[in-house]
Amino acid sequence: MDFGETLLAHEPAIRLGAFLGIFAAVAAWETLSPRRRRVLPRLLRWTNNFAIVAVNSLLLRLVFPAAAVGFAWFAAERGLGLFHLLDLPPLLEGLLAFFLLDLAIWAQHLAFHKVPLFWRLHRMHHADLDFDVTTGARFHPIEILLSMAIKFAVVVALGAPPLAVLLFELALNATSMFNHANASLPSAIERVVRLFVVTPDMHRVHHSVIRRETDSNFGFNFPWWDRIFGTYRAQPELGHDGMSIGIESFRDAAEARLDRLLTQPFREA
């Protein structure tokens, strides 16, 4: 069994281990080098944000027993998708699949801002008054289901290799926690890192209460799509210390509770 087959054979354990390890590392980074003061108590936010993660995990398991990697195997066994029509070297195929999956996630994120019905779901992620590692996993369950269905469709349409899908999902999970970190990078290092990966300072702009800033910096893994398609914004107008995070209509502390998070899309802003 080669390295790739070993990864795929132990997918659940690898996912869990990667999540716990990266979460612990980012949480420690936030503690040692916080970027902004907290608005709400950590206990209130983390308890309810983790409750959303638990709800989403259970729902995904019930609705989609096979993860995206399972759909990749399904496509591979039946010869479905673009890559099964092309004779590409395996490494090139894997790299293209990774980049195209990232572009698809970027486009989906843009759509969830521009389509009013989708925005009602997605705004729960943005209504968090603080910005930290748990914000990266705070999404409404309906949005999670839609996102997974879209990802499955892209995986099958591409005929993406299962190993590329697994590595992409591990990277997406890691970068979502990294770029939501309430933590600081030295400015000289940050300027270099954001050329290759979305940094916390880059993504924090996206969580600004100012809508024109919210509608920028849609990337999770790579920063290039925003630069290519003209949605890149380097810094918030009021600076990272002066900017307000969240949505104007949902600034009560009670909105951090699980029941309010679940019902938010069905209430007027």
SSE map:
Layout: H1 3-9, H2 11-32, H3 42-63, H4 68-78, H5 90-114, H6 116-126, H7 141-158, H8 162-178, H9 187-193, H10 200-206, H11 211-214, H12 224-228, H13 239-242, H14 258-263
Helix pairs in contact: 2-8, 3-7, 4-7, 4-8, 5-6, 5-7, 5-8
Description:
This protein has 269 residues and is mainly alpha-helical. It has one domain. 62% of the residues lie in helices and 0% in strands. It contains 14 helices and no strands. It is globular, with a radius of gyration of 19 Å. It starts with a helix and ends in a 6-residue tail after the last helix.
Mean pLDDT score: 92
Major sheet, described briefly?
A: none
Number of helices: 14
Which class of secondary structure composition applies to the elements? mainly alpha
Which features characterize this protein?
mainly alpha, single chain, 269 residues, globular, 14 helices
Q: How would you briefly describe this protein structure?
A:
With 269 residues, the chain is mainly alpha-helical. The chain has helices at 3-9, 11-32, 42-63, 68-78, 90-114, 116-126, 141-158, 162-178, 187-193, 200-206, 211-214, 224-228, 239-242, 258-263.
